[in-house]
């Protein structure tokens, strides 16, 4: 499952660049894959799936992040934090990864790597809150 970890990192970097530049996600991804020489089909496919999920559900995802980031507007979040949250919410809520705990930890590790420990704690808190509430709501729907 190492391909998912690499895809998560690729997704974060692509979203970071997209957020700064404003070009299409597809264009930024294409440039990034070429720049890094990434050829692994599993990595590329999962990266594309992550990014398309974020793109297709961006309004919902950003709304959730804003709701849980009490006192912090989306624009106040750093590029790394904002986009790690977008990817984490997209994957955990809409893609049903086989190991949600691993996905969660990968996003926290990426924030530590590209931002810092304080940012990672913030992302951890927001992502945990969203995911716990989502799981509780999903369980209640299945039981009802």
From TrEMBL:
**Domain named NusB/RsmB/TIM44: which ranges?**
6-132
Molecular function (GO) terms for this protein are: RNA binding
Q: Specify the domain of life of the species encoding this protein.
A: Bacteria
Cellular component GO terms held in the UniProt record: cytosol
GO terms for biological process? Answer: DNA-templated transcription termination; transcription antitermination
Q: Which residues form a coiled coil?
A: none
Record keywords: RNA-binding, Transcription, Transcription antitermination, Transcription regulation
List, alphabetically, the Pfam families matched: NusB
Family matches, as InterPro entries: NusB-like_sf, NusB_fam, NusB_RsmB_TIM44
Its biological purpose is as follows: Involved in transcription antitermination. Required for transcription of ribosomal RNA (rRNA) genes. Binds specifically to the boxA antiterminator sequence of the ribosomal RNA (rrn) operons.
- UniProt similarity note: Belongs to the NusB family.
This chain belongs to the protein called Transcription antitermination protein NusB
**Taxonomic source organism:** Hydrogenivirga caldilitoris
**Encoding gene (name):** nusB
